[in-house]
Amino acid sequence: MKNKYKIAIMISIIIFIVYFGQKDDRVEYVEKLLIPIGVGYDIKFRLGENVIYDVPINHYRFQVNKPPTTDVKTGTGESLIEARSSRQVKSDKKFFLGLERVYILSEEVAMYGIKDIVEGIFNTSIISDLGLVTVCKGKAIDIFEYPVKGGSSPSEYIEGLIKNLKYAYFFDDDYKMTDIFVRIFSEGRKVILPYIEAKEEGIEVTGVAVFKEDKMVLKLDLNETKILNMLKSDNTQGEITIRYNPVNYVSFSADAKRKVKVNKENNKYNFKIDLNIGATIEYDESKNEVFGSLENEKIFKEKAEEQIEKECKDFIRKMQTEYKLDLLELGRVAAAKYGRRTGVDWDDVVSNSNIDVKVNVKVIKGGRGNF
User: What is the pLDDT of residues 17-65, one digit of tens each?
Assistant: First the structure.
């Protein structure tokens, strides 16, 4: 058994030496390569349904005995393949694909449709489908050329920005290209992506871009995004402030867990969303401190549940009457119970369904100042 193991190792080593010992332009020193870390998608020109794409790439450039630098190269073409070729003929080194960290869609591209982009990445095995995806205001190339403080590249900064969203506003962490692919082609799902803007203080997330199938149709600000995320996602984190009046308030860190139940009566769907929130009190500026007595804690709990339920129901009402979209992916829950591929328009069904929200707040603990 040991001899067979040794033989297998020797064969692997021989294959490695033969393969990489041959002259092959697929094997290069890193100094001879450009390493893309961010890819952007802009529309250079549009006439009806015909477009010409600009595809900027934020890449590393390595040099001997020097620290790596970052730069941007842009390709242009009627298709994404043409844009890739156009970019290469303007570059003195070969682009080494497969390490892309972020994909930035301009709002114009997002509204035009992203199906071709998503499918193109999945059909090209050498391009990473694990990069994080976001929508930007203006042009993607302007984001890549924005001077980021601290010396990191815009792509690295945006990657960190999106990865750490899960600690605020109840964002989840399903923004990889592979997640987008699944949502576009799955029944009852919605593509919802972080929306970024370049402002005076830097690049920041200002809300989310909402898609119907593969086209962006709506942008929500952070206030609505917070409520949407609480109602749509499970096991998320954020901060909530409960105001008794303009002066007195309690702020707390919250862990939110969501459960959805559905039943169907007389061909009408009824959804019930149970939202369980664990509260860690951070700032208590109320007249009757939460930890002052059990009665005060009960008053806070009732006030918090009342306020959060109202905000959730107001959002759902707006979602059903104004947006007319199933932003909470309730269609996915109903399809799992009553059958998929029935031709149902879940946006229409959910907009005309009964949706109830029940909030339960449990005080877990207080901050160091609450004792």
Answer: 444 444 445 555 666 788 889 999 999 988 777 889 999 999 888 777 7
Q: What gap in Å lies between CA 24 and CA 276, rounded to an integer?
A: 58
**Is the domain of 153 the same as that of 50?**
yes
Q: Are 162 and 140 within one domain?
A: yes
Q: Tell me the C-alpha to C-alpha distance, in Å, between residue 323 and each of 21, 235, 279, 316, 332.
A: 60, 25, 31, 10, 18
pLDDT at 127 over 90: no
Q: What ranges in the chain are assigned the alpha helix state H?
A: 2-21, 80-88, 107-112, 115-123, 140-144, 154-163, 177-184, 222-232, 294-318, 330-338, 346-351
Distance separating alpha carbons of residues 255 and 150, to the nearest angstrom: 32
Residue-wise pLDDT tens digits, 293-330:
889 899 999 999 999 999 999 999 999 999 999 999 99
Say what the pTM is: 0.87
Q: What does the alpha-carbon distance between residue 79 and residue 139 come to, in Å, rounded to a whole number?
A: 18
User: In angstroms, rounded to a whole number, what is the distance separating the alpha carbons of residues 207 and 196?
Assistant: 7
Q: What is the C-alpha separation between 17 and 53, in angstroms, rounded?
A: 42
Residue 367 belongs to domain spanning: 234-371
Q: Which residues pair with 55 in a beta bridge?
A: 75
Task: Categorize the per-residue pLDDT at 291 as very low, low, confident or very high, splitting at 50, 70 and 90.
Answer: confident
CATH number for the domain spanning 301: value is 3.30.300.210
The confidence band for 198, taking pLDDT boundaries of 50, 70 and 90, is: very high
229: closest CA among 138, 327, 303, 154? 327
Contact, 114 vs 53, CB < 8 A? no
Tokens of 121: 């990445």
Angle, helices 294-318 vs 222-232, to 10°: value is: 100
Which residue, of 164, 190, 221, is where some domain finishes? 221
Asked whether the CA dihedral 340, 178, 139, 238 is positive or negative, the reply is positive
Give strand pairing partners of 196: 136, 205
Match 């005060």 to its residue by tokens.
296
Residue finishing a domain among 199, 221, 243? 221
Condensed to tens digits (0 to 9), the pLDDT of residues 256-268 reads 999 999 999 988 9
